[in-house]
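re: ur msg from earlier - yeah i can do the nicotinamide-adenine-dinucleotide complex, just paste it... oh wait u already did. ok heres what im feeding in:
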Amino acid sequence: MLQTARPEADIRREPKLWIGGQWVDPIDGEMGQSIDPSTGAVWAEVAFAGPKDIDRAVAAAREAFNGPWRKMLPWERAAILRRLADIYKERAPDLAVLESRDTGRAIREIRGEFANHHHFWQWFASLADKLDGRAVSVDPAVHAFTSRLPVGVVGAITPWNAPMLTTIWKIAPALAAGCTVVHKPAELTPVTAFELARMMEEAGIPAGVYNVVPGYGHIAGAHLVAHEDVDKIGFTGEGATAKEILRTGAHTLKRFSFELGGKSAHILFDDADFDQAMNAAVGSSFAVCGQSCALGSRILVQRGLYERVTGEFPGRAGKVRVGMPLDPETHMGPQSNIKQLEKTLSYIEAGHADGARLIAGGNRITTDGMANGYFVQPTVFADVTNEMKIARDEIFGPVVSLIPFDTEEEAIGIANSTRYGLCAGLWTRDVSRAHRVAAQIEAGTVWVNTYRYIRWALPYGGMKASGWGRENGVEALDSYLETRTTVISTTGQFPDAYAS
Ligand code: NAD
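and the outut:
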């Protein structure tokens, strides 16, 4: 039988918060634990912040905003961020191991992802000294121009599924814009943020520019959101949490950007390149153990291909090697936490109850040393209709729905018949159809003959209930900037309104 508790010496400890460039004891926080989802055992103990710790972090961020970070020349800020990118690139392999422990994601997948993270830092560093405004021609009697100013102190609240990536998507544009940050990582996966703090210090980021205060959402997160001296919240997580955040922060009228869930349609037309489309459809079903907002979890298959797709999918799903996250042979690790395991299993039940046809997986895995972990088989339901629960809700597990359709119009209708609008994909060899269909999909990103192609330069985010605003691209930078319009009279004349 596997142990449920690790020997004390094996437990990683991060007993202090990173505030104002110092490692400090929590004032009213506590020690929290991170569970290794492959064993169910505690693998790390981490300082969690309380409200007073959040106050202290916000004060430090404000001081840094009014002080060194704001006063620094833009090219100096850019140089520091480039240094951070270099340090990050060097540390990425070690950081990947920590993220694998925290999230349970397979190391081979995480290494691949982390090998690209430095590009995000580099790309935003390259924008830090290009925050130009523009001259606006209105009238020769005035010289009008705009300037771009940092929003101020940013509260970054991040989720557990891709802790570092969702962190970089906020912190890189925020720092490039000249903002300072109080970061509250997810309580379930707080470890990598501490390493990021160490890298920031090494890169020469001034004290207080980046502060790390993990903790519970309803305590540390809520206090950060309600704080009068926080100018913006950048959030990734669930829609229900975003609504709660809006309620909590409404009285402050701060800015919000939200990256929320998805239930993306992945449409396979009859004329698709079958093998490539299957590679993408299977890959985007089970990546990140199904715990990614971008996955094509509703696979819409045109009738002419349907039998072939349902025939081939089980064999392809069966080739996904589920196992221990740090085993380099493992494709897919466990679900990241027990709550998510229970949620995924409940949706498998719902699929059965609604009459979908299970063609692969469908069970928790408890063999081969996985008994105490949160492992689930790659699961495929066929003959799903868009009304079924498994087709409507974001499951966030390795459970995918195959939905047949006949016409292009029907596919577009099904794709858009969801409250979400994050991503979509379509496979066709007909270039006219590609443009025609892509133009009608209500989603922040549409991929044609590819899937999950996400890059630093490409705006990413959701329509409808999938979010507010965009991360990545220059649009992300915009969301951490205010525009000031300055109007200067070239005549110095101002008429007396009451002269006659
Ligand atoms: P979550 O909403 O439960 O938690 C996210 C963060 O919010 C955590 O740090 C949590 O502590 C904090 N939080 C919780 N309650 C809070 C409150 N009342 N006030 C302030 N903060 C609070 O989300 P999760 O389960 O960690 O993440 C999974 C979700 O994130 C999924 O819905 C997924 O689709 C979404 N996601 C979206 C994207 C995207 O780019 N669109 C990327 C990754 C994940």
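cool cool. The chain has 16 helices and 23 strands. ping me if u need the other ligands too
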